[in-house]
Amino acid sequence: MVKKIVFGLFSLGICFLLSFQLPDKEVKKIYVALQGKDSNDGSFQKPLASLEAAQQAVRVAKQSGFKGSIEVIVRGGTYFLAETLEFTAEDSGTKSAPIIWKASEGEKVILSGGKRIKGNWKKGNDGIWFVSVPEARSWKRNEKEAERYSKKPEMPLNFRELFVNGKRAIRARYPNAHLENPFLYSVANTKNEVQIPEGKIKKSWGAEPDAQINLVPRWRFFNQWNDVTAVDIENSVIKVGPREQHGEIDKGSWFWIEGVKEELDMPGEWYLNHEEGKLYYKPLQGTSPNDLEIIFPYLNRIFYLKGDIEKGIAVKNIQFQGFDFRHTTFTLGQIEARVHTDCAVMFENTQSCSMTDCHFENIGGYALWLHLDSRNNVFDNNTVKNSGGGGVLMTGARLSYMDDTKIYTPGEKASKVFPILNRITRNTVEHCGKIRYYGGGVHIDSRPASMAMEAGNYIAHNHFSDLSRNGIFLFRNQGGNVVEFNEIHDCMQTTIDGAAIHFATMNRLAAPNYIMNNYLYDIWGYEQLPGSKPRRTLANGVFLDWATSHTTVANNVIYNAGDREIKPIMGNWNLVLENNLASKTKILPLMPQEIGPKGTASHCIYPEQLRNIGAVVISSDKQLIRYDGKWEPKRIAGMRNLFNYDCQQAAPDQSASCTYQLPISEPGIYKVCIMYFPDEKAASNAKITIGHANGTEKMNWNFRKGDNLGFSISLGEFYFEKGKPATFTISNENADGHIIADGVGIIKQK
Question: How high is the pLDDT of residue 11?
């Protein structure tokens, strides 16, 4: 049966995206080839040998006064990079004369962050082969510190991935991966240890210097990699180190253990011995590793475009075309389970740069990571396969849910920016989430509240499939995004409580989002169960989570979702849900020729449709808030300890008030909202005064009631003008409990 889901009214206009070729300008060409020399002049006849030399040649040309575009043309072959190629503002082009790095036309250029095993493999009596890897000898794990990106990793080194003839090999593990139910299961609720059924634990697990468990804890929507530090055989307990203790290990949490030599028992498995500096591998029967191409990852990133937000410096107008990126590492000690920060290419404070017609395969994290004030960048017509994470990641400085902990990039300016106005189009992302389950085609994380009403990013005509979790995910304060004409299927394969398209903005005032004409199907949602097949649950077509509001969902075709086709929850405001087709069995998309990378249609949403007029001011916005009297910071545990929530409180025993300055950009009638977590010990009679263009409005407010998730509650509508009073004051005058200062928002109505 096909259901037509219709709510509200929505008119649709379709246009088609066209591309234009700009006229040629003066171009300087610099060539790189495997047979070149860095002492050459970089001409076609005398190419350079390294990307580093080409980068230096670009800088010299710019310094000499050359104003045209510069092309770095890399000839075919595999380039094993000794270190990450970092680009700074010094490497930038201009809008009329970009710097272009590209693979030579018709030639395959592989940029590898790995190292090829070169030694002579020998066969042991047990049928397991081994080879010397001197770079790994004497490496020691430090489970108390997070592993970090390094431009050139220090020796000795470690790796937890291996690629054999272009495929990711299995690190020696238990239970074996080929089993129908290849997991162990926790039988108790714990934090820094795992208890399993009696008789399952082996002594060798605790003796290994770099064994990990890959575990899905409570909530079942992410995995974490925990270092094994010891085992208690008598009590059937695995002890784990402090890194990545993100979730409670509850009864039913599933995992496997890897990095144990004793478990090297299946063809295709491998193990690295740091004490000996040897790599062990069990090949398929009749195969010699000496006849195979075996590569281990060495670099965490291959390209890193590195602006400086605190200095106001951006990398601009660099284009990358036609490269093949492979063999990067993943790191342990991620500060937030939802956001893993490994990538092949990173754009940090990068503007008007692009990556087109590239291929990413066998990488440890995402293909591209956009960070901080990265805007007007393009990721178009790329292919991502077998990644540890997913396709594209976007992040701001803070990775936490609702508080100001988990800061990835410190600094006042960093805390105020986020990647916006970027285009993610015509890409294919498949077979991803091999290392980190919380990934997908595109993951757009927490943006600052001050940016919630701004335009976001454009995601269209992509094909995302065979993914560990969501196809497209947008998190806190995300607004002004357009998601259209994408095909997403076979997602939610290792976790639950997500969707093909999952928005969780946690802000009822964020700018409008548009989810239109997408084709979404086979959305699984698997929860593993001991002794039986996995249970399918909580996998949606479109999930409007955490009070996602001001969102249009129209003309999408959805079938075979593990839960609901369209699922709004937690008190959404102003949703338009219209003309969506839903079915349990296969149905065809609307405008099938326009779905995915070959399509060109667009709804051509105007810029003014992608923003709200207003502002959100939170308790940490020092320039817009004045505190009088005694205020103290308060941290509240929210949603059954899933996250923390920060605010300010003032007790009733001393006079205290807090005044928010409301930024008004244009005259009009605005809805005024307040945000806080209700508390039964708070004041039921707090004094609130709203200063507006026509005078003041006074009211009593009951902080014991409100939205249980801390989201916006409307106090009414008032007229404001720029340059006239626009304030919101909370006072504890005669209050019967403490008052709360968290967030205040305004949104223009007319």
Answer: 39
Counting beta carbons within 10 angstroms of the beta carbon of residue 284, is it exposed (0 to 12), middle (13 to 18) or buried (19 or more)?
A: exposed
Q: Can you say how many angstroms the Cα of residue 705 is from the centroid of all Cα atoms in its chain? A: 35
Using CA atoms, how far residue 502 sits from 438, 497, 522, 543, 551, in Å, is 12, 10, 15, 5, 12
Encode pLDDT of 236-274 as tens digits.
Answer: 999 999 999 999 999 999 999 999 999 999 999 999 999
User: Using an 8 Å Cβ cutoff, are 344 and 113 in contact?
Assistant: yes
Q: Quick: pLDDT tens for 151-176.
A: 999 999 999 999 999 999 999 999 99
Q: How far is CA 254 from CA 159, 182, 222, 496, 525, in A?
A: 24, 9, 11, 13, 15
Contact 216, 437 (CB under 8 A): yes
Tell me how far apart the alpha carbons of residues 503 and 725 are, in angstroms, rounded to a whole number. 35
Q: Which residue has the tokens 């409580």?
A: 497
**Paired tokens of 239:** 């002890």
Q: How many Å apart are CA 142 and CA 713, to the nearest integer? A: 47
Per-residue pLDDT tens digits for 550-577: 999 999 999 999 999 999 999 999 999 9
- Tokens 């593993």: give the residue: 528
Q: Which two tokens stand for residue 600?
A: 């060109």
Residue in the block written with tokens 């270092």:
227
Ramachandran region of residue 141, left (φ > 0), alpha (ψ -120 to 50) or beta?
A: beta
Taking the CA atoms of residue 173, residue 175, residue 176 and residue 178 in that order, the dihedral angle to the nearest 10 degrees is -140
Q: Please tell me which residue, 607 or 231, carries the higher pLDDT value.
A: 231
Residue of 407, 352, 392, 354 whose CA lies nearest to 375? 352
Q: What is the dihedral of CA 257, 262, 263, 265, to 10 degrees?
A: 170
Share of the chain above pLDDT 90, in %: 93
The label of the residue with tokens 């000898």 reads 137
Closest CA to 635 of 404, 335, 407: 404
pLDDT at 372 exceeding the cut of 50: yes
* 471-528 per-position pLDDT tens digit: 999 999 999 999 999 999 999 999 999 999 999 999 999 999 999 999 999 999 999 9
Paired tokens of 108:
């395959």
Q: What is the DSSP string of 476-540?
A: TT--S-EEES-EEEEE-SS--SEEEEEEE---TTSPPEEEES-EEEEE--EE--TTSPPEE-SEE
Compute how many other C-beta atoms are within 10 angstroms of the C-beta atom of residue 63. Answer: 9
Look at residue 350 in the predicted model and tell me its pLDDT: 98
What gap in Å lies between CA 30 and CA 73, rounded to an integer? 6
Are 470 and 605 in contact, with CB atoms under 8 Å apart? no
CA dihedral 688, 693, 695, 700 (to 10 degrees): -20
Q: Under DSSP, is residue 622 helix (H, G, I), strand (E, B) or coil?
A: helix
Q: Is the pLDDT of residue 8 over 50?
A: no
Nearest-CA neighbor of 427 among 599, 272, 579, 311?
599
